[in-house]
Write a structure and sequence with these properties.
Elements lengths: L1 E6 L3 H14 L11 H8 L10 E10 L2 E11 H7 L3 E9 L3 H17 L4 E4 L11 E4 L15 H8 L3 E12 L6 H14 L2 E3 L4 H20 L10 H11 L8 E5 L5 E9 L2 H7 L7 H10 L4 E9 L9 H14 L4 E3 L3 E2 L3 H4 L7 E13 L1
Parallel strand pairs: 4-5, 11-12
Antiparallel strand pairs: 1-2, 2-3, 3-4, 5-14, 6-14, 7-12, 7-13, 7-14, 8-9, 9-10, 10-11
Helix pairs in contact: 1-2, 6-11, 7-8, 9-10
Length: about 375
């Protein structure tokens, strides 16, 4: 018999909630755990600024007192107001290969959502787009990344059996880093610089980045991503939070800012050495010894880089501004021994983004999906 418990986000409960996935994927060579301290922060309403406009409920499934599944229900009122919808999200979902378990979990989150007046359940999604999203449906034998969800092949089978349908897909590409910038991009970058007066900015001080372009960076993300699927505009409190949390960790050599003649930020590319192996070794923990593996992942030799974020202002999209990113980054990747670059998720319908890889040797190696079901 399956017992479903709605749990409060206390320290002890969240420890059990987050530990479940670590235990479920123990020994899986492709699974990359999240940094657990980040997941704790995200699931603690008093610490997550998205709680200003989001509600959450956490559920765990037990059999004979042993945890066998987990799921979070989320209602993003900001997105619902902007899209005039009544959608609930599910996320942070994991379960053993047992239909009784998955059915009980989704029944629980569906009842909670209906009780809040919601009419559709979609996911997996987080509170905002900076959380993990999309269930893996292709590429189960590919090493995951720190920015994405890994799940077993039986997950999407359960979703279809439970009556969920495809809502939207993301695709991911693995690119070979060339020894020089493709000539086409060099030509485009030089034309764009001259025509629009754009230039690349590089920094050696994280404090200066925060001070001079921290807010502008996240406002650019809001502007560039505003029309994407289920995008949740970042609030000022969220922007302050992300500036404090993440900008201090950036590898400045791999941070590229593009500004116009007036020094206004119009493009950004953020990448970092792959943390996949480091997170596997640390099992997602910073303490007591995980910090060693994570620091080694940031500072040590690595042949793979994650393209965490690329954003170009709508006024400069389709005008070649992204060529400046490649002109700056490709030589830096090659000089640092980087052989492969991970695109991370892109909407399958976003042809503008996918077209930028056409002059690189690429392989689409993963696909992930959001599912939906009427309540």
């Amino acid at each position: 018999m399956i017992e479903i418990k709605e749990i409060k986000p206390t320290k002890q409960n969240l420890k059990e909630f987050t530990q479940f996935q670590i235990d479920l994927y123990d020994g899986n060579p492709y699974y990359v755990p999240p940094l657990l301290m980040d997941e704790f922060e995200t699931l603690t309403p008093s610490r997550n600024p998205a709680s200003d406009f989001c509600e959450q409920a956490l559920f765990m499934a037990f059999r004979d007192g042993k945890p066998v599944g987990r799921i979070a229900g989320i209602i993003n009122q900001q997105v619902n107001r902007a899209s005039n919808s009544s959608d609930a999200r599910f996320g942070f979902v994991d379960f053993i290969d047992d239909y009784e378990v998955s059915e009980a979990l989704f029944d629980a989150v569906s009842k909670w959502a209906k009780g809040k007046g919601m009419k559709k359940l979609i996911g997996p999604l987080g509170f905002t787009d900076l959380d993990h999203e999309g269930m893996l449906v292709e590429g189960f034998n590919e090493l995951s990344t720190m920015a994405t969800i890994y799940n077993y092949p039986y997950y999407p089978v359960h979703m279809e059996r439970l009556g969920f349908k495809k809502e939207s897909d993301w695709v991911e590409f693995l690119m070979e880093v060339p020894d020089k910038v493709p000539e086409r991009y060099n030509k485009i970058a030089n034309i764009v610089k001259e025509k629009f007066g754009l230039r690349v900015l590089k920094y050696t001080s994280r404090k200066r980045v925060k001070k001079e372009y921290g807010h502008a960076l996240f406002h650019l993300i809001n502007e560039a991503y505003k029309d994407l699927y289920q995008y949740s505009q970042l609030s000022e409190r969220q922007i302050e939070y992300y500036i404090d949390q993440y900008l201090g960790l950036l590898n400045l050599d791999l941070l590229t800012l593009i500004v116009d003649k007036k020094d206004k930020l119009v493009g950004v590319g953020i990448s970092m050495p792959s943390m996949s192996r480091a997170l596997q070794k640390s099992k997602g923990r910073f303490f007591p010894f995980g910090w060693y593996h994570l620091l080694k992942g940031l500072k040590g030799k690595n042949d793979r880089v994650d393209l965490l974020l690329v954003a170009v202002h709508p006024d400069y999209q389709n005008k070649g501004a992204n060529a400046l990113l490649f002109q700056d980054l490709v030589p830096r990747y090659y000089a640092n021994g980087i052989k492969y670059a991970e695109s991370n998720p892109e909407m399958e319908t976003n042809s503008k983004v996918q077209s930028q890889w056409e002059y690189f040797n690429t392989r689409q190696h993963r696909r992930r999906r959001s599912f939906s079901k009427k309540l």
